[in-house]
Amino acid sequence: MKSITIKDVAKALNVSISTVSRAFNDKYDINPNTRDLILKKAKEMGYQPNPIARKLIQKRSYNIGIVVPEFIHSFFPKVIIGAQEVLIEKGYQVLIMQSHESSITELRNTKTLVNNMVDGLIISLCAEDKNVEYYKSLVSTEIPIVFFNRTLEEIEAPKVLFDDYKWALFTTEHLIRQGYTRIIHLAGDMNLTLTKNRIKGFKDAHRKYKLDDFKIIYSGFSMTDGEVTAKTLIDKKKVPQAIFASSDYCAIGAMKTFKNFGYSIPKDIAICGFSESDMSRHISPPLTSVEQPTHLIGQTAANLLIEQIENKKAFIPQTIKLNGSLNIRESSVKLNL
């Protein structure tokens, strides 16, 4: 069976091929009634547009690349779901890659996406990120790009962030109000903006209550990071009254180690996490955690990217900061006050 072409549609309506093309591409310079007539006739004739030809004509791939540090934990998959909803609705395909927390893999992934002519990129940096200059070069060549969650201040590009400072301050304040005065913050990678903001919130909460008996340890985000740090504190006999960890997984790793060594939570040590993982509600005791709007982060990043793609000349880079909530559970509530 012969496939229907754009020429067949034009011939059936006795209009030019360029007129049919403008109708299919929804150009501004075609009469709406003419466009509707052409689209109706094309549907009746069984015309199927050639997606490759469309991409070549419009000089767009309709592919978007997303690069994240990992898929193991729920945070990044939930963000991706939010982004996909927006992008698919707008007619884009999504290509997803993970860096495995490796700057080398992250660079390789990003270059692969760029070389395959994606229309734009949504990226959350790995903890050891060393690719600042490469990202600066992408921005300078006007490749549409949006960073979310894990970013670096040196990269001047659109960003979707969480208000890490505010919620780190609130979480630390919660611990102080429970009566804990010797608190340790297990921080993430020192280069990341979110780490700096959480540390600032942690410090400012102590300043607010005129407390100076606190400590910051650059631990990391993983469960293993929490386990190792907790074991070190136990071995050095420097176990604090409370811990505010950089992630739920770091907090859970620390909690597991303390419990294995006979510490009771929160009686002997209180623990808070960050990011409201699926595990936080189901461990014993349930973990106090800061909840981030993962779905909204993805949607916001996708909308920013589409705006950048479709309005390159008029687009002004901006940083959007989103809010969250502190879910207080048994792991940080002091007993017998």
Structural description of this entry:
44% of the residues lie in helices and 16% in strands. With 337 residues, the chain is an alpha/beta fold. The strands form 2 sheets. A 6-stranded parallel sheet has the order 2-1-3-4-5-11, with helices on both faces. It has a 6-stranded mixed sheet with strand order 7-6-8-9-10-12, with helices on both faces. Helix 5 runs parallel beside helix 12 (294-310). The protein is elongated, with a radius of gyration of 26 Å.
In short:
With 337 residues, the chain is an alpha/beta fold. The chain has 12 helices and 12 strands. The protein is 44% helix and 16% strand.
- Characterize the largest beta sheet: strand count, sense, and whether it forms a barrel: 6 strands, parallel
Can you write the helix and strand succession as a string? HHHHEHEHEHEEHEHEHEHEEHEE
Share of helix, binned: 40-55%
Name the beta content range.
15-25%
Named at the architecture level, the CATH assignment of the largest domain is 3-Layer(aba) Sandwich
User: What distance separates the N and C termini?
Assistant: 81 Å
The rough form would be described as elongated
Q: Report the top-level CATH class of the largest domain.
A: Alpha Beta
Within CATH, the superfamily of the largest domain carries the name Response regulator
Q: Order of strands across the widest beta sheet?
A: 2-1-3-4-5-11
Q: How many strands in all?
A: 12
> Could you list the spans in which at least 5 consecutive residues all have pLDDT below 50?
none
